[in-house]
Specification:
Blueprint: E1 6-15, H1 21-29, E2 48-51, E3 55-61, E4 64-74, H2 85-100, E5 107-113, H3 120-134, E6 142-147, H4 149-154, H5 159-165, H6 168-176, E7 181-183, H7 192-208
Parallel strand pairs: 1-4, 1-5, 5-6, 6-7
Antiparallel strand pairs: 2-4, 3-4
Family: Belongs to the TRAFAC class TrmE-Era-EngA-EngB-Septin-like GTPase superfamily. AIG1/Toc34/Toc159-like paraseptin GTPase family. IAN subfamily.
Keywords: GTP-binding, Nucleotide-binding
Protein name: GTPase IMAP family member GIMD1
Length: 221
């Protein structure tokens, strides 16, 4: 962030198979950097870093417009259909340290499907995995990204109604990350206006965290 007219935010997407991690990464970048399609097995097997072009009209600093650049690290899911937990953890840790070692990580986005319930066992395994990756301050640097929000909307749920009906497991998770969450409409996610709304919310989370970054070291495993 040395250039006062430009800002870069570093993000990583984490989550289970078929939650829409790669699609969410593409939406944030405004491109199709990551492979994303319906599959009976896990699609992503290695980490990949995507870069956006300069994005205007999102944020300002001292009354002047600031160009935003977004970097997103796409990751293999956990649990994975062909990789062990240790393999996924090592792959993600190494990629985080390699790509964000100098500038740090602004936010880890835990991707969940809004059209599927979050079960306690699934949540416990996911939280444990994130803790192992990010360390004891993971809550400060984690936000929840609820994909397939269009399906929840089709079922008659507004965001408010959805949260009112949400399971105690999901509400507890949202509470633990200080209610940092964003709904992502998969039908509109690549549309410029929808993308701008999501990016502004993420920037607000980063601002609330005083622009702190999580510094990551190479795994010694």
């Amino acid at each position: 962030m040395a250039d006062s007219n430009e800002m870069t935010i570093n993000l990583v997407v984490l989550g289970r198979t078929q939650t829409g991690k790669s699609a969410a990464g593409n939406s944030l970048l405004g491109s199709y950097d990551f492979e994303s399609h319906l599959s009976p097995s896990s699609v992503t097997t290695c980490c990949s870093l995507g870069h956006s072009c300069r994005i205007l009209g999102i944020t300002r600093r001292n009354g002047c417009e600031v160009a935003l650049r977004v970097r997103v690290l796409d990751t293999p899911s956990y649990p994975h259909s062909s990789l062990s937990k240790e393999q996924v953890r090592h792959t993600v840790r190494s990629a985080l340290a390699h790509h964000f070692r100098e500038e740090g990580l602004h936010l880890a986005l835990l991707v969940l499907r809004a059209d599927l319930p979050l079960c306690p066992d699934e949540n416990d395994h996911t939280i444990q995995f994130i803790q192992e990756l990010l360390g004891p301050t993971w809550k400060d640097f984690t936000a929840v990204l609820l994909t397939h929000a269009d399906k929840a909307k089709e079922a008659g749920f507004s965001e408010e109604a959805y949260l009112h009906s949400a399971s105690s497991t999901l509400l507890s998770l949202l509470s633990s990350v200080q209610y940092k969450y964003v709904f992502l409409d998969n039908q509109k996610s690549i549309i410029k206006e929808e993308r701008a709304i999501v990016l502004r919310k993420l920037l607000n989370f980063i601002r609330q965290n005083n622009y702190q970054v999580l510094l990551l070291k190479h795994s010694k495993e």
